[in-house]
């Protein structure tokens, strides 16, 4: 397979901020008296802030007015920012920085495809902004993963057909989004949680570009 570009999700792929989102939603759920489990969190990975809140309210049978929902999203984000504020270059997940550099050196374009509105701030803290040719994040999209909009916008910005862009994703919603858009996808994490990805790797540690390609061809 020949790829002209790669599109990376952010949370849980480039940096372990997925854990911060989990803690932040757990805190909000506790404040609302809604039970929130690891399984719930798996459903919310890759899903926008507003859709995640709707999931939580629905689970708790809570009907709230738009102004209250805005306040709750603000509160969840404040919890998240408190946890993420010390993010630094050393927090990039093992192997991801060197893979990003290697892709660039081989002339493969690199895009971000994230649902997060905090993506630019996190990439700045990781000192990884320059590693991307284009960024598409929660501020640009109208439809959350599993809709493919975020990846389609990334491919369009790069001028490359989806079939030639490899997506890296740690969330089932993101894998479904990539597949719906016609993108080949590599799951990052555990096969048990990413069952619809044909190829799943545990992370980028020990994975150079040639190793990723080998997994796809196996
Ligand atoms: C995704 C995360 O990347 O971004 C979700 O996987 C998160 O957990 C979503 O809810 C939105 O993030 P933010 O930073 O805009 O609240
Ligand atoms: Mg993710």
Overview of the structural elements:
With 218 residues, the chain is α/β, with parallel strands linked by helices. The chain folds into 2 domains: 141 residues, HAD superfamily/HAD-like (Rossmann fold, 3-Layer(aba) Sandwich); 67 residues, Putative phosphatase, domain 2 (DNA polymerase, domain 1). Helices cover 46% and strands 11% of the residues. The protein has 9 helices and 6 strands; from the N terminus they run E-H-H-H-H-H-E-H-E-H-E-H-E-E-H. It has a 6-stranded parallel sheet with strand order 3-2-1-4-5-6, sandwiched between helices. Strand 4, helix 8 and strand 5 form a beta-alpha-beta unit. Helix 1 packs across helix 4. The longest helix is centred in the middle third of the chain and has 19 residues. The radius of gyration is 17 Å and the shape is globular. The chain starts with a strand and ends with a helix. Bound molecules: 6-O-phosphono-beta-D-glucopyranose and magnesium ion. The site of 6-O-phosphono-beta-D-glucopyranose has 19 residues, from helix 1 and helix 3. 6-O-phosphono-beta-D-glucopyranose (BG6) binds next to helix 1 and helix 3.
Q: Which short descriptors sum up this protein?
A:
DNA polymerase, domain 1, 2 domains, Rossmann fold, 9 helices, 46% helix, single chain, binds 6-O-phosphono-beta-D-glucopyranose, six-stranded parallel β-sheet, binds magnesium ion, 218 residues, alpha/beta
